[in-house]
Design a protein that fits this description.
about 130 residues, five-stranded parallel β-sheet, Rossmann fold, about 25% strand, two-stranded antiparallel ribbon
């Protein structure tokens, strides 16, 4: 699957998430993908804001979440009927809904940009799984 517009949403109170958000945005832009950033995420990452979680869900092809299980569940609840596939990058301790730890963000961006991803449906969330 090739995505054109990435929605980025982060747990803004997690340590290191502002830098991670800037790094992820830069990596996607270097691969010519459009990134739209949720308002609070944009504020801490010093980026242009693109709207609320619901607005990001409406306008993106894929949502990348920087946080943990709670952050993903919050995005699911706020996105409601406009929920798109979610790729969770864990910031902190291991989660069940996140796909990878933050140290692997470059591999994630590369897999998404190159279309080397497949869907896996879980109980409440559709996740992206990168293939090496």
């Amino acid at each position: 699957m090739r995505t054109k517009t990435i929605g980025l949403i982060a747990h803004t109170e997690k340590a290191g998430v502002a830098k991670l958000a800037r790094d992820v945005i830069r990596e996607f832009k270097e691969r010519s993908l459009k990134v739209i950033v949720e308002n609070q995420t944009a504020k801490i990452a010093k980026q242009k804001a693109s709207g609320s979680i619901a607005r990001i869900a409406q306008r993106s092809d894929l949502i990348v979440v920087l946080g943990g299980d709670g952050t993903i569940l919050n995005v699911v609840a706020m996105a409601s009927k406009d929920l798109k596939p979610i790729f969770g990058i864990n910031v902190g301790s291991l989660g069940f809904l996140t796909t990878v730890n933050s140290s692997a963000y470059r591999e994630v961006v590369d897999a998404i940009a190159s279309g080397r991803i497949s869907l896996q449906q879980t109980s409440a969330v559709i996740r992206r799984v990168a293939h090496k």
